[in-house]
Design brief:
iron; two-stranded antiparallel sheet; disordered N terminus; calcium
Length: 368
């Protein structure tokens, strides 16, 4: 009896909560409704209502999570549409695979994975120091979005397009595939300041980079495995030429860049006062193949970026990242498995779901 009396006494609260949940639940599907408020309930109905409330709570919690079958009904052809556009883009320019993989990374580390990196405007993330004259592939995203809209208009977010494009970039470069969790929505604002502070820099220490990963829910393994994305792509002379001449006032190159042939080649390609926008491969001797060669290069002092070589050669690395670099260099499948896990974790950084954000019509601007 005491339990029944408690339920009866709380009946009005249950009714009020039921009405709120009905409104929110339908709103999350984009349904505009007016709910006729319930006035009275018998105790048995109240108990049933409480059970329904619990069920709807669980349903909404589940709905707030990303799922691999999110578009199975609303846009079943989505993976094929994205893959077709990615094949075309990479066939036109092989480097585009790395560029689109990097866009997803730079998106997720600022405001979460909400496609804010794609927004135009002078205060956009595109113009933050880590991205200006560096982030690229926006036209390819536009092409994918146009193709997707032609198949299922107003359904797929730009944030999910970035996640799928990143996966396909890896696959089309010879790397592993995985089922991409989907259901993200697009953010309404860019965060240029956040891009300047949150994104790892090519000269930062292991400790600093790890702190930035931890700040978004990632860990040391993610630092090393996701750095392995540098097995494809290129870097501009401007971001590593400081290592080639009079490094830290030594009148010589960075000693951790220990392959003399590589140093000579880079000095010729990136001379003092040369064109800082010239590029060279991040993974020497394995330019476009997604494999573990990047880690083998680190063991031999061939990491192009200072932050890459830090993972093996720095004092910090001895007790943090070096052992994992060595393990990945010996076991490619170990690296690929961890890379996939880290990509899924990264793709789940603070996504907008449910009724948050929007589905942009144009990835470059918020809806009017």
């Amino acid at each position: 009896m005491p339990r029944l009396l408690t339920i009866r006494g709380s009946c009005k609260m249950v009714v009020d909560a039921l009405n709120l949940f009905i409104e929110y639940y339908l709103k999350s599907f984009g349904v505009a409704v007016k709910v006729r408020y319930l006035k009275t309930m018998k105790s048995s109905i109240c108990i049933s209502g409480f059970a329904w409330l619990v069920a709807m709570s669980l349903c909404l919690i589940a709905r707030s999570q990303l799922t691999t079958d999110f578009y199975s009904t609303s846009c079943p052809k989505l993976p094929r549409v994205v893959r077709k556009q990615m094949i075309s883009a990479i066939k036109t320019e092989t480097r585009m695979a790395a560029s689109l993989l990097r866009l997803h990374f730079h998106d997720c580390f600022v405001n979460g994975c909400d496609a804010s990196v794609l927004l135009d405007g002078n205060d956009g993330e595109k113009f933050a120091f880590p991205n200006i004259n560096s982030a690229r592939g926006f036209e390819v995203v536009d092409d994918i979005k146009t193709a997707v809209e032609g198949t299922c208009s107003g359904v797929v977010s730009c944030a999910d397009i970035l996640a799928l494009a990143a996966r396909d970039a890896v696959v089309l470069s010879g790397g592993p595939s995985w089922n991409v969790p989907l259901g993200r929505r697009d953010g309404l604002v860019a965060n240029r300041t956040g891009a300047n502070t949150n994104l790892p820099a090519p000269t930062e220490s292991v400790g600093n980079i790890t702190a930035k990963f931890v700040a978004v829910g990632l860990n040391l393994t993610d630092v090393v495995s996701l750095s392995g994305a540098h097995t494809i792509g290129s870097a501009r002379c401007a971001v590593f030429s400081n290592r080639l001449f009079n490094f830290s006032g030594t009148n010589g190159p960075d000693k951790t860049l220990s392959d003399p042939t590589m140093v000579s080649d880079l000095q010729a390609q990136c001379p003092v006062n040369g064109d800082g926008n010239k590029t060279t491969a991040l993974d020497r001797n394995s330019v476009d193949l997604f494999d573990n060669h990047y880690f083998k290069n680190l063991l031999n002092g061939r990491g192009l970026l200072e932050s890459d070589q830090f993972l093996y050669s720095s004092d910090e690395a001895v007790s943090t990242t070096r052992s994992l670099v060595e393990a990945y260099s010996k076991d490619q499948q170990f690296f690929l498995n961890d890379f996939v896990k880290s990509m899924i974790k990264m793709g789940n950084i603070s996504p907008l779901t449910g009724s948050s954000g929007e589905i942009r019509k144009n990835c470059r601007v918020v809806n009017s």
